[in-house]
Amino acid sequence: MKKSYSFIRSLWLLVIGLLIVSTLPARTLDKKAIAKVQKECKKMGKELKKDGWKVFGSALVLEDELAKHRIALEEGSDSLQSIVATGEAKDINQAKRKAQGNASKQLASMRETEITDNIDMTITNVQGSEGASSSTTVTDNSSQRTKQRVKKLVPSFTLYRDKPDGKVEVQMYYLVTP
User: Fold this and answer.
1) 125 - beta bridge partners?
2) 144 with 113: CB under 8 angstroms?
3) Is the Cα dihedral 34, 38, 22, 16 positive or negative?
C-alpha cells in the first residue's frame, strides 16, 4: 500500500514540476532591471492618477498593474507586443466593448493589411494664338483592407476615468503575439 502512495505522490510532483517549468518566461529580468521598470511605472502611475485614471476590477494599485504588464512585456522579449486600446461611452461596459473592438482591429492590422493606392495624373497643355496654358490634375485614391480572425483578447488590466460630460473613458492594456 505504501508503494502505490509514493508512486502517486511522485507522479503528482512530476506533474507540478512540469507545470512550473512550462510557465517560466523565456527571459527573466534581474533585480536591477525590475527596479528600473518599477521606478518608471511609479512615475507613469502618478501621471495617470493625476489625470483621473483608476484601475478597474483589480485589487492591485495602478503602479503595480503597470509594472506587472511591463515586466511581462520585457520578459516576453520579441514574442510579445503591447496594445493599448481606448473606448468612450456613457456606460463602462459599452466603453470596454469599444476598447476591445479597437484592440482587435489593431491586432488584425498588425498581422495582415492589404493597401491599394491609385494615383491618376492628367496634364493638359493648350497652345494657341493668344499664348500657352497648362494645367495638372492629380487624383489620389487609397484604400486599406484588413481581414483577420481575432480570437477573444484578454486584457492585462483596464483603466477607467469619469469625464466631465458624464461619459466614461476606458484604456485596456493587452499583451499580444503578432
Assistant:
1) 134
2) yes
3) positive
C-alpha span between 178 and 163 (Å, rounded) = 33
Q: Is 113 helix (H, G, I), strand (E, B) or coil?
A: coil
Residue 48 confidence (pLDDT) above 90: no
Q: Which residues contact 6 (CB under 8 A, 6 or more apart)?
A: none
- Alpha-carbon gap, residue 92 to 88, rounded angstroms: 8
**Helix or strand or coil: residue 1?**
coil
Q: Please check the confidence at residue 147 and state whether its pLDDT lies above 80.
A: no
Q: Is 170 helix (H, G, I), strand (E, B) or coil?
A: strand
Task: Pick 125 or 16 by higher pLDDT.
Answer: 125
For cell 516576453, name the residue. 76
Helix ranges restricted to H, the chain = 2-23, 31-50, 62-76, 92-111
Residue 55 CA to residue 68 CA, distance in Å, equals: 13
Rounded to an integer, the average pLDDT of 113-127 is 75
Reported as a pLDDT band with limits 50, 70 and 90, residue 40 is confident
